[in-house]
């Protein structure tokens, strides 16, 4: 049997391996993490020497992938949507240099914000950088698109985005594999006129990129990802990515027979779009994410022909569903049983026995002794301490922002200025903030919850943990006497409180490292050890 | 043939092993599958669900439409109620009666039972007890799968083959416990 049941993320991974991948570079982030994890577990990837360990952040990942591409090989870089903000500098400029070996950026957006700070749409980045974007609608299409993406990348010498969203990434379906392709040989070219982005080169390269745009449009016209679906009637639908799935589902369920244009490759194929608009009085624009193309179609002065997220036919925010699309196409809303009133929310919480719990217990006690008790925090399991019973943190904005926001608040006069950050987040983008603090001798106390892992996303390797973490703090110039180690356990509560009190009182940079392994990853290790009989 | 199944529970309860067994049986039976899972933040003790769709024709959406689920299979009684808007007219609720209480305002069991009772002959299962009888409290997922087997549209023998395939790597003893748990659930629901 050659059909495998794969998550969308896994289909991307298997597709990349089969398309001759030489290396994947990534920092974890829901819903993209499973791509890299799959490659790390894959026996085939190991046998073919595909490099796959985690990077410190999305920017370092992207740059390393670009380096592999420079050397002629196919590289994949994976991240969640907000990760692309971090990698944006490298990404946008790589569209100017162009690539050598195929470079594919698999980016996973999270509409409805199941596990994210926002629901930004990565297709904007594709337009911004003027590179091709693929947006497959099924797991099989994702798999097939990886071959296509690498070929496209090598033929137009640009990075190619494969955009997916939570639903597709985290949903399984049967996938049929194709034959595996050989990896590219090492083939680095001297091309300083492309890769040295001094103004005189960059201007030429930018013009090349502009000149490529009509060619990219033509390539979209013949793409298997862009397909019309026959139909009749005055209403037509242009369905992007998995928006297509909901349209087809609604058509089948409600016997609707409208014309549909399925879009899965950008820039848009103009003739196909024109044909749909010419044939229909009204066009419903179905996009999973921001109304990126709807806004373009409407133009500044508007168009009475267009329906979509911007006129309330579909909701402006959040994921699409078959129900929303069916109603937008004129179907009656389904009659449903209501959720009984007794059904209360069940928010996520820190695991029982988690070291973060003991860290926040101590912190809350000390913070209560102060008139101002603001705690700047960051992104990780410890963010759950924003909820009761701890209600211990007051900010979570973007990775690394705890330290730098605490610096700014301290500059404004806030005392104590407290930051709480995890080890992986510190390695991702806390270190530069700490360097700023040291340089300014800022009166901030930075509490690093070192649980030896990247727990929130399922326990990936963390680059800045244990003795490495301590060395980094020393190396960045934090005074030895203000690098304090605590063990977040009930039995140490009193000592831990004392340490926090002392460091809050210090008018300079303190780092308090709370060291205790994540109990979830410890349990996983034990299970794995038991399974392998060690 | 088409079945829409909502699997419900609390993050960490392992509803995905139920999904994996059904998936295996459906895939080897040549059926189309779409199975949407919840990964990420909610897995830390939050409400989680999986939309599982199987059919003998092409499926498009990963998500089940409102009012079209043939089955809500829940490993926690309150969680079964959360997804009632998805239940089709005549759809079945099969749920474990073991509450997972990790919030202060968890409603009274009588209220939950009364709401469950408003659905069409729900199958209510003391899964922990049966699982222990089968040999391990951890097999309660397979008790629940057994109790729901007749509503999945898949031959129970194929589901058993799925259990063997899934638990096989963990050894024969584990397979036996899970098969036994599955059969106990099945027996309860057929009566
Ligand atoms: C730019 C960016 N990349 C990735 C993520 C996803 N993400 C959120 S928390 C987290 C891991 C945090 O690990 P750590 O700081 O060690 O805390 P822990 O969860 O282990 O307590 C990741 C990868 C994100 N939100 N933003
Ligand atoms: S996964 Fe680890 S770090 Fe996260 S809440 Fe659980 S024990 Fe704590």
CATH superfamily of chain B: Pyruvate-ferredoxin oxidoreductase, PFOR, domain III
Going by CATH, the homologous superfamily of the largest domain in chain A would be: Thiamin diphosphate (ThDP)-binding fold, Pyr/PP domains
Query: What is the third-level CATH name, the topology of the largest domain in chain A?
Result: Rossmann fold
Number of domains of chain B: 1
| Unreliable parts of chain A | none
- What is the averaged pLDDT score of chain A? 97
Q: Briefly note the structural class of the backbone of chain A.
A: alpha/beta
Beta-strand proportion of chain A: 15-25%
- Rg of chain B: 15 Å
Run of helices and strands of chain B = EHEEEHEHEHHHH
Shape descriptor of chain B reads globular
- Please work out how many helical segments of chain B DSSP would assign: 7
Strand order of the largest sheet of chain A: 2-3-4-6-5-11
Largest sheet of chain B: 6 strands, mixed
On the 0 to 100 scale, the average pLDDT of chain B is 95
Strand content of chain B: 15-25%
Instruction: Kindly give the count of domains of chain A.
Output: 3
């Amino acid at each position: 049997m050659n059909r495998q049941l794969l998550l969308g993320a896994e289909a991307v991974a298997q597709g990349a391996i089969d398309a001759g991948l030489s290396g994947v570079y990534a920092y974890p982030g829901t819903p993209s993490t499973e791509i890299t994890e799959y490659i790390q577990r894959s026996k085939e990837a190991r046998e073919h020497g595909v490099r796959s360990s985690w990077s410190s952040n999305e920017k370092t990942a992207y740059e390393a992938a670009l380096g592999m591409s420079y050397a002629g090989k196919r590289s994949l870089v994976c991240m969640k949507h907000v990760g692309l903000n971090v990698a944006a500098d490298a990404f946008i400029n790589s569209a100017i240099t162009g690539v050598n070996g195929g470079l594919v950026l698999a980016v996973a957006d999270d509409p409805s914000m199941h596990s994210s700070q926002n629901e930004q749409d990565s297709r904007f980045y594709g337009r911004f950088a003027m590179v091709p974007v693929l947006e497959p609608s099924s797991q099989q299409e994702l798999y097939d698109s990886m071959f296509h993406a690498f070929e496209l990348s090598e033929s137009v010498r640009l990075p190619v985005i494969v955009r997916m969203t939570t639903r597709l990434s985290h949903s399984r379906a049967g996938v049929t594999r194709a034959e595996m392709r050989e990896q590219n040989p090492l083939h680095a070219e001297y091309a300083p006129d492309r890769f040295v982005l001094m103004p005189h080169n960059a201007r030429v390269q930018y013009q090349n990129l502009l000149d490529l745009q009509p060619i990219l449009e033509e390539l979209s016209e013949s793409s298997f990802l862009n397909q019309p679906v026959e139909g009749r009637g005055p209403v037509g639908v242009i369905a992007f990515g998995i928006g297509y799935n909901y349209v087809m589902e609604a058509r089948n369920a409600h016997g609707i027979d409208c014309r549909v244009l399925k879009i899965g490759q950008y820039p848009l194929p103009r003739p196909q779009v024109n044909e749909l608009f010419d044939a229909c009085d009204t066009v419903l624009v179905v996009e999973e994410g921001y109304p990126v193309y709807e806004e373009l179609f409407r133009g500044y002065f508007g168009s009475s022909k267009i329906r979509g997220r911007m006129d309330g036919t579909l909701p402006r925010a959040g994921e699409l569903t078959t129900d929303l699309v069916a109603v937008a196409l004129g179907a009656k809303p389904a009659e449903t049983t209501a959720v009984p009133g007794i059904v209360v929310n069940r928010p996520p919480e820190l695991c029982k026995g988690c070291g973060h719990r003991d860290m926040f217990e101590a912190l809350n006690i000390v913070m209560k002794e102060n008139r101002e008790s603001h705690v700047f925090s960051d992104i990780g399991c410890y963010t759950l301490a924003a909820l009761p019973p701890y209600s211990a943190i007051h900010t979570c904005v973007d990775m690394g922002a705890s330290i730098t926001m605490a610096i700014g608040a301290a500059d404004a006069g806030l005392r104590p200025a407290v930051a709480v950050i995890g080890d992986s987040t510190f390695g991702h983008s806390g270190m530069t903030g700490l360097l700023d603090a040291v340089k300014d001798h800022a009166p901030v106390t930075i509490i690093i919850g070192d649980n030896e892992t990247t727990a929130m996303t399922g326990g990936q390797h963390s680059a800045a943990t244990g003795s490495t973490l301590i060395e980094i703090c020393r190396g960045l110039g934090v005074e030895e006497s203000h690098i304090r180690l605590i063990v977040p356990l009930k039995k140490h509560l009193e000592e831990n409180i004392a340490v926090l009190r002392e460091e809050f009182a210090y008018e300079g940079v303190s780092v308090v490292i709370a060291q205790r392994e994540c109990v979830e990853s410890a349990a996983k290790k034990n299970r794995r050890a038991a399974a392998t009989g060690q | 043939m088409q079945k829409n199944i909502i699997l419900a529970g609390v993050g960490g309860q392992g509803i995905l092993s139920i999904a994996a067994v059904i998936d295996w049986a459906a895939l080897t039976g040549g059926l189309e599958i779409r199975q949407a899972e919840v990964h990420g933040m909610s897995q830390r003790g939050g409400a989680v669900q999986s939309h599982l769709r199987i059919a003998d024709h092409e499926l498009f959406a990963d998500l089940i439409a409102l009012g079209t689920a043939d089955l809500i299979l829940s490993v926690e009684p309150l969680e079964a109620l959360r997804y009632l808007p998805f239940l089709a007219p005549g759809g079945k609720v099969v749920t474990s009666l073991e509450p997972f209480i990790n919030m202060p305002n968890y409603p009274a069991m009588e209220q939950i039972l009364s709401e469950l009772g408003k659905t069409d002959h729900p199958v209510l299962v003391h899964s922990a007890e049966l699982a222990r009888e089968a040999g391990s409290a951890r097999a309660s997922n397979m008790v629940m799968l057994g109790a729901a087997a007749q509503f999945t549209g898949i031959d129970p023998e194929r589901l058993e083959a799925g259990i063997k395939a899934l638990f096989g790597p963990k050894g024969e003893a584990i397979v036996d416990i899970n098969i036994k748990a599955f059969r106990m659930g099945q027996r309860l629901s057929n009566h």
